[in-house]
From TrEMBL:
<feature type="region of interest" description="Disordered">
    <location>
        <begin position="21"/>
        <end position="98"/>
    </location>
</feature>
<protein>
    <recommendedName>
        <fullName>U3 small nucleolar RNA-associated protein 22</fullName>
    </recommendedName>
</protein>
<dbReference type="Pfam" id="PF17403">
    <property type="entry name" value="Nrap_D2"/>
</dbReference>
<feature type="compositionally biased region" description="Polar residues">
    <location>
        <begin position="325"/>
        <end position="337"/>
    </location>
</feature>
<dbReference type="InterPro" id="IPR035082">
    <property type="entry name" value="Nrap_D1"/>
</dbReference>
<dbReference type="Pfam" id="PF03813">
    <property type="entry name" value="Nrap"/>
</dbReference>
<dbReference type="InterPro" id="IPR035371">
    <property type="entry name" value="Nrap_D6"/>
</dbReference>
<feature type="domain" description="Nrap protein">
    <location>
        <begin position="937"/>
        <end position="1094"/>
    </location>
</feature>
<feature type="domain" description="Nrap protein">
    <location>
        <begin position="709"/>
        <end position="935"/>
    </location>
</feature>
<dbReference type="InterPro" id="IPR005554">
    <property type="entry name" value="NOL6/Upt22"/>
</dbReference>
<feature type="domain" description="Nrap protein">
    <location>
        <begin position="374"/>
        <end position="532"/>
    </location>
</feature>
<dbReference type="InterPro" id="IPR035369">
    <property type="entry name" value="Nrap_D4"/>
</dbReference>
<dbReference type="GO" id="GO:0032545">
    <property type="term" value="C:CURI complex"/>
</dbReference>
<feature type="compositionally biased region" description="Acidic residues">
    <location>
        <begin position="24"/>
        <end position="69"/>
    </location>
</feature>
<dbReference type="Pfam" id="PF17406">
    <property type="entry name" value="Nrap_D5"/>
</dbReference>
<dbReference type="InterPro" id="IPR035367">
    <property type="entry name" value="Nrap_D2"/>
</dbReference>
<keyword id="KW-0687">Ribonucleoprotein</keyword>
Amino acid sequence: MVKGLKRKRNEVIEPRKVQRIDRDEDDELEFGNNLIEEEDISADGGEDFDVDEAGSEELSQLDEAEDGEAWGGVEGGSTAVPLPDGQQNAHKSKKPPMGEELRAIKDASELFKSSSFKLQIDALLPNVRPKASRVPPLEKFLFELHSFLKDVPSVAPQHPLEAARKLQKKGVAVPYALPLPTEETNWKVAFEPPSEINLVGSWANKVSVKPKDGLKFGVDLAVEMPDALFQEKDYLNGRFFHKRAFYLATIAATLQKSKLGAKVDISYESMQGDPRLTKLVLTPKNDDSATDFTKLNAKVCILPVLSSTSPIPLHRLSPSHANIRINTSHDSNNDESNPPKHLPTPLYNNALLQSLTPKHYLLSVHNLQNEVPAFTDALSLLRIWANQRGYSEGTKWCVRGFEAAGPWWWSLLALLLHGDEPKPGVKLNRRKLVGKGLSSYQLFKAALEFLAKYDSEKDRVFVKSPEGQRFPQEEYNDFPGAVLVDSSSLANVLASVPLGSLALLRYDAAKTLESLNQTSFSGDPFNGTFLKDCRDLSTRFDVVLRVDLSSAKPRNSSPHSTIDVGSPSNALLASISSILRQGLGDRSRAITLLHPSSLPRPISQAHPSSPDTIFIGVIHDPQHAFRLVDHGPAADEQDQSVLEKFRALWGDKSELRRFKDGRIVESVVWEVTTADERAHVPAMIIRHLLKWHFGLGEDAVGAWQTSYDSLLRLPPSISKEYIGSGVATGFKGALTAFDNLVKQIKNLDEELPLSLLNVSPISESLRYTSVFSPVPLSSSLAQLLPPNARYLAPIEIVLEFEKSSRWPDDLKAVQTIKLAFFERIASALMKSVDGLKAKVVVGDGVHDSQLMDKAVLEVVTPEGWAFHARIWHDREVNLLDQVIGGKASLLPHIVSKTKEKKTPEHYEALEAKEVYVRRFIHAPRHHRAIATLSHHYTAFSGTVRLAKRWLASHWLLHTHIREEVVEIICASFFVGGGRDFNTETDPEKALQHLVPASKERGFATFIEFLKDWKWEEGLFVPLYGSGSSTSSEARHTGKGVWKIATEHDVDGHVWTQQSPDLLVANRVRALANATWNFMQGLESGQLNVQGMFIHPTQDYNILLHLDPSILPRYLHNVKVDQDLLTRRGKYANKTLQDDAVKVLPGFDPAQLFVDDLQRIYADTFKVFYDPYGGTQIGAVWDPTLKEPRPFRVLGGFNSVPLKKDNEKSKDKGLVTLNQDAVVAEIERLGTGLLKKITLAQ
């Protein structure tokens, strides 16, 4: 299982018995290999990377040992452990494991998360490294390239522009960086063969990791430019970079005309779009020659570097030195009395210093490999983790700043192992070192812990260097970004990484740590940590904006900053990142720019192409993200520069305001009209800043929040009527109406035989999770609405009265007493409250059982809110148990030996108990937990509402999947991960968890979950956080295949007893996959949000088309036709106000029709319908009914005799489904509702 676990066969002195104790190791080995197969680990069909020969041999030997040499035990020294019969004589006794084996077993369990985790890592690493058998052609090519570079002819010194023109004639452009050389330039460029050629980078140290998106391994070749080519002042005004660019172009021009050049494609590539970091890339042609390394999937990168003895003085390259001496109005003073003052160029200086680092990095990594045995594997794990999250090169949207960031990753581990330089004035180094004997997993986890706590904005880090730091730490105080100086004390490896990108890295590290540290946990952390591609934008960010930069015009562009950063494109992106981060402030945990990494370009193109489109991803801090006012400096601020800076940032949005506490301050106010719009405040800020500072209008910035909001809103024509009526609507209005009703009922205590103890809400309208905000419907308001917009959803509540011995012991009598209570409450309420209507509803029209709780009290308040109240009697379940013959019928010590025949009353009681437990025990508890989550997590309510809307629009909600199931699944994204949560949790603490902070991200997470969820394994959600588990008494006997367990429902079938069944579960997975693929259109800007909620109908055998003009819930339809919501009467001159409108709470004829079809034809077809105003009903025949079968009485479906093939054949009485008759019956049942019926061909 781990290296060193098995002994060599020639060391076995005496034969040993075999006992196969456990097959767990074998199972784990298969699981690990399966995980590798799931990941796309090769670029050409899976042949690029295989487990190396040693690894394969080890795994095969392990399998062999598993079959023939498994350890038989320790007991009794060398005494054999008894074996089952038939195996006693097969083998002789076995020795106990030796100390080395025991140590390996212990290390596997202690130094790694688990032994299986180590096995998975061991199986993963060989598959992300190049295959050794494919390296020889590369080595032959490198030898030839080395000889070629040594023989490149010299070029005499010449003017840089003249030299560029000569090379241009050969089809080679010189990638001169800013500031470009001019005709007045008085220095020259030249070429001499390199003084030294070294293989550097990750390839030389064998720490290369397979890049993402099929990109090639990079084989870096450092070509040292001779010292004679440089002068002492070449650090000024880009002279070094110009000479470097000419040196590179000369090699390209010579190479393309050589025989060696005919074997490769030659191109330029500029890391992060910076011309100063241009390198020459050689990609092999597939010609099957001895030097063809195409199968290796690698490229050779030629990097001109500076020798350590060059005449350029290093002390001139400190971050505080100004090496761009160009006089502009931005950075100089034209007054002759004051000499020009040049600004520091820290990024320019750092780019120059990078030409000195490759050889230092090579030696540093090599030393770390020798000092720390697990360093190579730890670095590989760290880079795999980073690659899966976009912190690397890739053709998809990558996090800005991490292109060619190899030095950053190994410097991070070097910091943990060697520590950092002490801070000035600080006596003790506060950073503790990690041990050099740690495993790769422990080093990887230590790196994540550092990243999760690393404050890149405040913490300046200097990795400990044997020679000490070259530049004083104070020189980095004004560095415009993060600072982490490498162990060679030359370059800041984070110089080009925006602070927002590092904030996202910190967030991802914390999220991964949370996954790895989970104790109560369902799932495999290895898969999510190393194998899952986490670059999807919709599940990663709370807000995603697509920005077209083609029309960007910066308001304040400085030539100095442009040259310092390297290019106008980089300067623009750096400015956008800085301004947006400043504008959002503490509203966001991370704001990141994403774009594809730099691509190779022809050597005839001097400068890299800049990205025209970027994405801006924002992760909210829910405590601050949605505030409406940003306060600035006070009006009497003495320092005017502070006021000017605030006004410059916000532009015309900044204004002086006086607040209630008397303060007069500069402030920015964001106007919103609804709660949904408040969630848009961060996006509004970004849009304003992009327009004010860069001239990017609404058409250049795309977002999708409004499209999602429209799915949860009533049509504008209907909303206008509600707003005009002035009634209180929404969740607050419903809660207020509920509180008022509770007070009114409690005031009736003197008129009721028992006092009311408690009223428990169990409606989604009172826990913020109904798809549409609840609205009342009074008779006066109903007259203003069309008939297909007059649906009033009843709010369900449960009444609990004080205990009394006067309740009867007969179930039928209990139901009768409930009716009497309802009648008394209804009469008393109507007397005490003017305008209130109450009636007792007897039966549900479906069940005729007298044992089941069916009666409700229907109350319609004067404002138009409807409530359905039920009475909970606690002894009812005991009476049901007596009928069932369960635990309550016998004393604990009495066991009945006779099996009595089950009576119909027994089955009635079973069904009644199932309804009772779900309605009176689980529903109130579930309601309280979900309501608490809605209060603590701002995105939870919207996530649930969008998820329900999606399932409903695909004809699954309510009919096949209960609303409570959706709420529990969505809750798993917020309380899943073993986070303790209960009603006493501090809200500020609760919000610190790494959970979605927008409904759009929560919805994308829901779709991803359904796509990947292996529902065969079930789901456990710690919804209640009580720490105690209580199993439900009933065992699963229904058709439901989803198991969603909580602390109070360990079996996981309270809400999934009968559905979704296997057909529906597979349908959900297929729809989730299709929706997920559709959501990827976000990356191309083509995402049509409503398209995800339009249901395909080609899979149904029957389609019933309903008349939308008579459907009370048509106003909720996904694609509602506004023309059908107009109030047109039968006659043009007749007003509808004269007609009395009767409000019917909960009356939905379409849903009643669907329920009837599902009940009557349960064995014939399966029905699908959108409960939110759907105008079509789909049905799928049971395919088994189309097969001929013998006729029998009460067959369960409408059948027709099968026609005989010929008259002479025997009549076996075979029948088949009578589809025509069934369709005719449906048409008769749906008279008045159906417009037409469509049958699939």
